[in-house]
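Run log, item B.
One chain of 377 residues. Sequence copied directly from the ordering sheet:
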Amino acid sequence: MKNRALRKRDDFRQFKAKIFFRTVWMAAIAAGCIYLLYSLFLKGRFADWIVSVNQKIFGLDYGAAKTLYQWTFRNYIELVFVVGMVLVFLAVFRIYLNWFVEYFIKINHGIEDIGRESTGEVSLPPELAATEKRINTIKHALERQKLDMKLAEQQKNDMVMYLAHDLKTPLASVIGYLNLLCDERQISEELRQKYLSVSLDKAERLEELINEFFEIAKFNLSNITLQYSRISLTRLLEMLLYEFQPMLHEKNLNCNLMVPEDMTIRCDADKIQRAFDNILKNAVTYSFEGTHIDIAAAGQGENVEITFTNHADTIPEEKLERIFEQFYRLDVSRSTNSGGAGLGLAIAKQIIELHNGTITARSENETVAFKVTLPIS
């Protein structure tokens, strides 16, 4: 706290120095003016000049002119001198005040620039560099906040658009097949079962998409409190692999688990399992049939790194940078039935970052790898 106060004082050292020297300079000017008044009224030839003026203007002799001077000036010379001193002080103080207020005017203009959302940075005199820096910091923060609000609004609009697009296809299929069942009075049992099976598949697809949208809304809008506990990372990944066996078998995939025995971490088990589930589901969805997926975990100091590697089409760099964005899918067309709504990896990223961890992706030579880094405790 003390060091911070010292730094703040140092920020205005140049400003204080300029005020000090300007004050000394103004005081010197005031002292010089007062000395001139003193020399003029009390020590100079002011009396002779007034007597001469009285003689010329009023046509008086020297004695009468001197008496007039005596009554009009000499008897009040101290008062005239004091009034002169006061006038000099007020004039010098006014000049000094105008100079000082100029700083506030410039600061006010800088603040107005923030309100006007003008381009470029606020510029103040060099002695106000610290204030200029703080104003520009606030200006940049407000600009970032405005940009974030625009992005949030765009994401909301995208959510509505993608929701309508992704739900329309399976919903249309369900309605279509149900209409067929209603319209056709004479229908074979085999065809009826086929229509019902397709309708059920599409309805389950609808449920899956809706659940994903609810999931991302929960993570975006709720103030999530993590329920930390010490868990076995080894057992968690083994259980995850067991649950994915039907999906792996369907695409003829093998999954290799390379995790040390009884590796433990402190985390919210349910949410971390949800993140790993989304990452592995993404790997299964896009893997080539008949290949294998590798899951490896290793301790790195105070962190643990879990890597999910699968064999799939190489992801271009420009797409790899967007892979964790909400609603982003690698599919060229969103009408495909493979993959979800483009929310799984976004949810995984949010969960991992809530645990103060990171997730990155790389892709080369038809290999895709996701690396998750989490604190051990």
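Observations after the first pass:
- The first helix runs from residue 2 to 11.
- The mean pLDDT is 79.
Flagged for discussion on Thursday.
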